[in-house]
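Friendly challenge for the regulars: who can give me the structure tokens for this chain first? No prize, just bragging rights.
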Amino acid sequence: MNKVLIIDASESDRRLMSGLLVKSGYDPIAVDSMEAAKEKVAELPPGAVVVAAMKFTGGTAQELVNWQKREGYKFPVIAIVDNLNPLEIADVMKDGGAVNIIQRPAIDKQLVETVGKYAKPENVVLVLSDELIPRQSEAFRRIEKSIRTIAGTNANCIIFGECGTGKEQIARQIYLNSSRAQKPCTVIEAGGAALVGQHDPATMRSEMYNRIESYFKKADGGTIILKNIHLLNFDKQSVLLHILENEHPDVRVICTAEPELLKMVSEKTFRPNLFYILRQVDIAVPPLREVTEDIAPLSEYFLARYAHNTGRDRKRLDASALKALKVYPFPGNVRELKDVVLFAAFHTPNDAISASDLSFSQSGPETDSGFKLQDPTMEKAKIIAALEQAEGNKTMAAKLLKIDRSTLYVKMRQYGLK
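First reply, four minutes later:
Bragging rights claimed.
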């Protein structure tokens, strides 16, 4: 909901305006003085609007506009005028002043409509909780079972999956369902700056060693979630291995990694002995394009959360939108699905979101869609799978296969496919 700051000396009019705005889905803040107005302007989020009386305690609408300019704020100011004095109106609106006016006697008729002209839709960011989002694929039911099984042990675990598949949520669920949930959980980004610390001349240890060791000491009896361990450089791997092998900290380590970690182990760019200490058990999270039956429940979850956070009516996906979502390969997986669905909900005026409302990224890394024709011995099976997923739509199937429609027809005839 967009914030609207109301500045007016009249308590009754502040209540009137607040009530009108709340009914229309806005989040009003009402103050009566310049001092309070300045404090609230500094706290306003993007997309907010200011409604100010021509005069109020300690200031005027024009003075507030001038203060905003000096401080670098650009919230649109709508002035409340007691009468249509042309000179006063011209003064408050000159040189980029107030963007519009409302007549005080007509507040009930003009306020909401005028605010609506300048309130920009608030960008709603969904911060996902630690709970798993409801899904219906058999693959995810197996993951839920693995979470319960692993949580009952103290084994270190690696969760494999592409970017955006929800690996950290799974890691947190293992922690929350374990006996260590009563102790701290520390989340560390392996490729971030958190593993850089201060050098300690007294111990003759490296700054990296001191920092990593300090995390284990603080998490004693608890859990460390180490995200993206494939980004650990060789020095950090060596320090982590030494601590785990020689100091035996009472800390469970749950890691997330992209599939490339397995290749790194075979190529010896990731230390195999560290890998096997960390991977006492593992979970593999499939990419979204391999579990398209999860797209509908995930989308419904995002739309429900969006409606709750914005106070707007819940939107739904029609058949064309669901079909388009299932065909798109989603290199960014669940995270990208969330962005696509929310962008459509944000910009679509209708209750139902159709395929034409969806906006897919035109750029991104090359991914193995699972269908791309590279191995001739697998071509027929992949063509059949693509046609099934596209529900017989040749254009969509060709897109999945990364070939043009005419090539698809040639290959269908080649393999005797109707």
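The radius of gyration is 29 Å. The CA atoms of residues 328 and 362 lie 11 Å apart. Your move, everyone else.
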